[in-house]
Amino acid sequence: MNPGLYLAIAGAAIAVALSGTGSAKGIGIVGSAASGALSEDPKKFGKYILLVALPGTQGIYGFVMGFLTIQKIGLLTGQIVQLSVTQGLEVFFMNLPIAISGLFSAIHQGKVCAGGVNLISKQEGEMGKALVMGVLVEFYAVLGLLVSIFVWMFLTF
């Protein structure tokens, strides 16, 4: 393998690792809030689980980008593309938008959703408001994914 290929693989790993780390942290934050709230009213589990799952989507986005990256460089087919260092850097940087936005948005989404759990525990009919606030944070992870995919689409070797 050459240095360009190492950089490309590192880019895929960064996309998966950082967005996955953010998702784990975000789910942990909102999951802790939901666990406490469930001790008071276990019947609200169905409402809380949506908020708990929401920060997990960033990890999925990072996984998708990592998968697209290894597909692009030929690791899935066995026909590995020989990349220059410059091309490897292009692939590496292609993954940064979802890696960074996935990391930070998932953590902050967990905080927002934890607030949503508190809202629902006091006012059960406000589920929609809690969900909308969590989805607003999601928007920035989606933008990061779109930027990474757009670069992926137009990157040629």
TrEMBL record:
Subcellular location: Membrane
Presence of the UniProt keyword Transport in the record: yes
A single Gene Ontology CC term: proton-transporting two-sector ATPase complex, proton-transporting domain
InterPro entries, per database record: ATPase_proteolipid_c-like_dom, F/V-ATP_Csub_sf
Transmembrane intervals: 48-70, 91-110, 130-155
Keywords, sorted A to Z: Ion transport, Membrane, Transmembrane, Transmembrane helix, Transport
Keyword Transmembrane found: yes
Listed GO MF terms: proton transmembrane transporter activity
Pfam families tied to this protein: ATP-synt_C
Regions annotated as coiled coil: none
Residues covered by the V-ATPase proteolipid subunit C-like domain: 11-68, 96-150
Broad class of where this protein is predominantly found: membrane
Topology relative to the membrane: Multi-pass membrane protein
The family this protein is said to belong to: Belongs to the V-ATPase proteolipid subunit family.
Family matches, as PANTHER family: V-TYPE PROTON ATPASE PROTEOLIPID SUBUNIT
Name under which the protein is recorded: V-type ATP synthase subunit K
Taxonomy of the source species: Archaea, Thermoproteota
